Amino acid sequence: MNLHEYQGKEILNSFGVRIQRGIVANTPEEAVEAAKKLTEETGTGWHVIKAQVHAGGRGKGGGVKLAKNLDEVKSISNDILGMMLVTPQTSAEGKLVNQILIAEDVYYPGDSEPNEFYMSVLLNRATGRNMIMYSTEGGMDIEAVAEETPHLIFTEEIDPATGLLPFQARKVAFNLGLSGAAFKEMVKFVTALYTAYDKSDSALFEINPVLKTSDDKIMAVDAKVTLDDNALFRHKDYAAMRDEREENPIEVEARAAGLNYVDLDGNVGCMVNGAGLAMGTMDLIKQAGGDPANFLDVGGTADAQRVETAFGIILKDPNVKAILVNIFGGIVRCDRVAQGVVDAYKNMGDKINVPIICRLQGTNAKEAKELIDNSGMEIISATEFQEAADKVQEVLEA
Fold first, then answer.
1. Is 331 annotated as a binding residue?
2. CA-CA distances (angstroms) from residue 171 to 60, 117, 146, 206?
3. What region holds the ATP-grasp domain (predicted)?
4. Which domain holds residue 41?
5. pLDDT at residue 103, as a whole number
């Protein structure tokens, strides 16, 4: 689950990470009041207005601007709120800005070249260890740094059993070229950042930039946070931070129905039971000359209502030209699934306007095939993987 910048900073702050302070606003009037409050609390006269969307590169699209007085705060906030922000990480259509963050200006006058670093904490799947990735080249695309100057990117792997050790935090500060008070501040920052990542059950914490001020303070100026959905049951307060306006509406609907669904860019919808079978089914679709339009796992209770709901979600994608139902009957009986497919087909009527290939294997597979073949419905049955692939190819070429 992705978070907005202001939400990520709230988590960081709760674990003792120094942050650029800010207040979220939904209207230009709220933005002005937020700016006034920040001035009272921090003494800042200038404010940074930041669009809150789940996408990076906001500054390049005009979603991050500096306001030097309250009139500019109101004017800039009015321009950013409601805009369709297009960044390198959004579609060509962009994302609607519903909220903005009014943040203090932390770049001191006279700091013509502030020290900005890049830092992220994530899982290295190849080693099964957490990893801190960091660079002296903050404030710019880390992808460009990796491509053009890879020697400026450092990594520090952490054993989950021991956690971040003191010498590792010192090593990070040393590699960033810090000394004195700034060195000590960075050690504290890195330690608190890793604790925040670990205790919040996050999949990613990315801070770009981490700023060293002229008086040697270290703070997070930005925060990109992705939480592990599988651990949200332990963090009810974090789960409440979900902003469904930023998510794919079809995926939101599927989650509400208890379906595991991921939207893709292909032309063949797939409905399966089990994540491993889903991956194999997507390979099957590619083999047949198509591209998977989605990942959809209906789980072990593929009854008529669940199957009908799944069909409805798949068909919301206008790019779908065929649907492959690939079910292995282990716990669930194939004939029960087949009845669910037939009932769903009857109930949906002309809403189903693409060919359906139904491959059922496992418990009562023979009865399931007979049920589908004798249903009178335009459902193409199959029992083997290759047979299903051939039939997908046939309907795509028809």
1. yes
2. 33, 15, 20, 19
3. 9-236
4. 21-105
5. 97
Q: Rounded to an integer, what distance in angstroms lies between the CA atom of residue 365 and that of residue 369?
A: 6
CA 330/CA 211 separation, integer angstroms = 55
- Indicate which residues carry an active-site annotation: 118, 206
**pLDDT (tens digit per residue) in 77-113:** 999 999 999 988 888 889 999 999 999 999 876 665 6
Instruction: Please indicate if the annotation marks 116 as binding a ligand.
Output: yes
Distance of CA 20 to the CA centre of its chain: 23
Q: Residue 192 contacts by C-beta under 8 Å, 6 or more apart in sequence?
A: 12, 15, 16, 17
Q: Phi/psi at 112 (nearest 5 deg)?
A: -70, -30
For 110, counting Cβ atoms within 10 Å of its Cβ (0-12 exposed, 13-18 middle, 19+ buried), the class is: exposed
Rounded to an integer, the average pLDDT of 362-387 is 84
- The enclosing domain of 214 has a CATH number of 3.30.470.20
345 Cβ contact list (under 8 Å, min separation 6): 311, 352, 356, 375, 377, 379
| Arithmetic mean of pLDDT, 361-373 | 85
Q: Rounded to the nearest 5°, which phi and psi values hold at 4?
A: -75, 165
- Gyration radius of the chain's alpha carbons: 26
106 in a labelled binding site: yes
0.85 exceeded by pTM: no
**Residue 330 annotated as part of some ligand binding site:** yes
Query: Is 341 a known ligand-binding residue?
Result: no
What is the pLDDT at residue 300? 65
Q: Using the predicted structure, report yes or no on whether residue 40 has a pLDDT greater than 90.
A: yes
Question: Which segments of the chain does DSSP mark as H helices, in order?
Answer: 5-14, 28-42, 70-80, 142-148, 166-175, 180-199, 236-239, 249-256, 275-287, 304-314, 334-348, 365-373, 385-397
CATH code, domain with 270? 3.40.50.261
Q: Is 59 annotated as a binding residue?
A: yes
Q: Domain check: are 125 and 243 in the same one?
A: yes
**H helices then E strands: how many in the chain?**
13, 18
pLDDT at 373: 86
Q: Which of 247, 264, 290 is the last residue of a domain?
A: 247
pLDDT in tens, 313-361: 998 888 999 999 988 877 778 888 888 888 888 888 777 888 899 888 8
Report how far residue 272's alpha carbon sits from residue 99's, in angstroms, rounded to the nearest whole number. Answer: 38
Same domain, 215 and 69: no
CA 350 to chain centroid, in Å, comes to 35
What is the pLDDT confidence band of residue 264, given thresholds at 50, 70 and 90?
A: very high
